[in-house]
Structures are given as C-alpha cells and as structure tokens.
C-alpha cells in the first residue's frame, strides 16, 4: 500500500497536505469513538511524509463516491479482460493507458479532461 502511495506522489510530482483514503485494513486498526487508530507501519509513514489523512466513512456515498468512482472507472476501462502477470508490467500498462486514454476523457463531475486540470507542467510546479 505504501509503495502505491509513493507511486502516486511520483506520478503527480509531489504530494498534497491531505490525502483522502477509503478505510482499509492495511492502514487502519480500528476507529475508537471517532479517532482512527492506524497500523504502526502506516502511522510511522504518515508522520515521516508529513501529510494528514481524511478517511471516508463506511457506507457514506458522499465521501466514498469520489474514490469508488475512480476505482470503478479503472476496473471497467483498463483492468477488464487484462491478464495480470507481474505488478511492474501492470503498472507500466496502466500508466501508458492513462497517458493514451484514461486522462483524456471528459470527467463527469468537473466537465474537463484530467490532463487539462493536472497537466504535466502544472503537476511538477504546484504539487511540491
């Protein structure tokens, strides 16, 4: 999970101060009265990298919808009918697909192409 997070930071040329995640057992142990208890590994990583985390609430479409829609989009448009052999190959193919197709379709919510909002020059300058 941490490698995926680092890959995202590299792709965007930096990171934001707050990261939105779905609640996942790879990074959370439990929720105690609204306080999130992270795994030891994720807590150390979060502190080292210096970002805060906003976790989506379970079964709450307003917070989970944004994340789940991205996952559905990738599953339906990139992952469907592809055979997975090695993670590195999968990641390379996904990045090539994003460059060629995924980031060029008009997003339903913002009515823009992701490449227009997160253009490579913009990413490198603004996210550091």
Automatic annotation (TrEMBL):
GO biological process annotations for this chain's record? DNA integration
Residues in a coiled coil are: none
List each copy of the Integrase catalytic domain by range.
1-122
The superkingdom of the source organism is Bacteria
Q: Do you know which InterPro entries this protein is assigned to?
A: Integrase_cat-core (IPR001584), RNaseH-like_sf (IPR012337), RNaseH_sf (IPR036397)
A GO molecular function assigned to this protein is: nucleic acid binding
Its recorded name reads Integrase catalytic domain-containing protein
According to its UniProt entry, this protein's organism is Halalkalibacter nanhaiisediminis
């Amino acid at each position: 999970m941490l490698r995926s997070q680092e890959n995202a930071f590299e792709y965007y040329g930096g990171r934001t101060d707050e990261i939105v995640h779905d609640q996942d057992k790879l990074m959370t142990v439990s929720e105690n009265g609204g306080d999130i208890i992270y795994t030891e590994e994720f807590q150390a990583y979060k502190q080292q990298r210096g970002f805060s985390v906003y976790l989506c609430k379970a079964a709450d479409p307003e917070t989970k919808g944004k994340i789940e829609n991205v996952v559905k989009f990738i599953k339906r448009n990139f992952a469907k009918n592809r055979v997975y052999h090695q993670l590195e190959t999968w990641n390379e193919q996904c990045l090539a697909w994003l460059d060629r197709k995924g980031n060029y379709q008009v997003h339903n919510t913002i009515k823009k192409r992701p490449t227009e909002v997160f253009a490579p020059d913009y990413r490198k300058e603004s996210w550091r």
